[in-house]
Structure formats: C-alpha cells, structure tokens
Design a protein that fits this description.
This protein is mostly helical. The protein contains five helices and no strands.
Length: 134
C-alpha cells in the first residue's frame, strides 16, 4: 500500500526536477535568442528579427532539452520532430506579438519575452512528449 502512495510523490519530484532544468535551459535559450533578436533589430524589422532568432533558438533548445533537461541522447529522428513544438509556439507567439505591438502598443524590444512567458507550459509538455518518445 505504501509503494502505491510513494509513486505519485516520486513522479512529482522527478517532474519538478525536469521542470526546473527546463526553466534553467529555457532561461539560457531565451537570453541567447533575445540578444540575437536585439542585434537583428539593428538591421531588420521586428517580425524578421524575431523569426531568425527563433529558428536559431530551436537548435539550441533541442540540444539543451535533450542533454540537460530530459537526459536523453541526441537523435536525428527526434530532432526532426522537435520543430513541431516550436511551430506551435511560434504561431501563438507571432499572434501575441502582433496583437501586443499593433493594438496594445507594447515596445517591440519586450514583446518576445512576454509571448515566451505565456507559452512556457505548452512548450515543456510538447518537448517532453517528443524527446522522451521512442
């Protein structure tokens, strides 16, 4: 009977560790892609700057999520599936960015951060699903 009660606690503890590592790696990835976004803003509009920095962030994210967060080996097959996570996030983010810039008049320098914060839980669950899959 005790083992049955310990299982949910064990799963919660493991999930919490994975989520904490996800937040750390996400922070590193977010900082890197945000700095790239700011750099690209010197040359391009916010939409193109965001798109390019976002694509580069996918590569970094896959590596960090596989190796650090979920402690899985890098897999070409999973790497090919991984952009699905970010396609969903990208579409939601672009909609949020458009609305926040064009209608709410947020500064273009901060809207990607607001959009990313909103989509963190979705990204965690979809990333885990793909990276942990067989």
């Amino acid at each position: 009977m005790k083992a049955g009660r310990d299982l949910p606690m064990l799963l919660t503890k493991r999930l919490n560790k994975e989520f904490l590592r996800f937040l750390i790696s996400g922070g590193i990835n977010t900082l890197a892609t945000y700095l790239m976004y700011l750099f690209l803003l010197l040359f391009f509009n916010y939409s193109l700057s965001y798109s390019v920095s976002y694509i580069l962030g996918i590569f970094l994210s896959y590596y960090l999520n596989s190796v650090f967060v979920f402690q899985e080996k890098i897999s070409f097959r999973k790497f090919l599936k991984f952009p699905i996570v970010y396609l969903v996030q990208y579409l939601v983010n672009m909609l949020l960015i458009y609305v926040l810039v064009e209608y709410a008049h947020f500064f273009v320098q901060i809207v990607p951060l607001v959009a990313m914060i909103i989509t963190v839980p979705i990204t965690f669950l979809l990333s885990k699903l793909i990276i942990k899959s067989n």
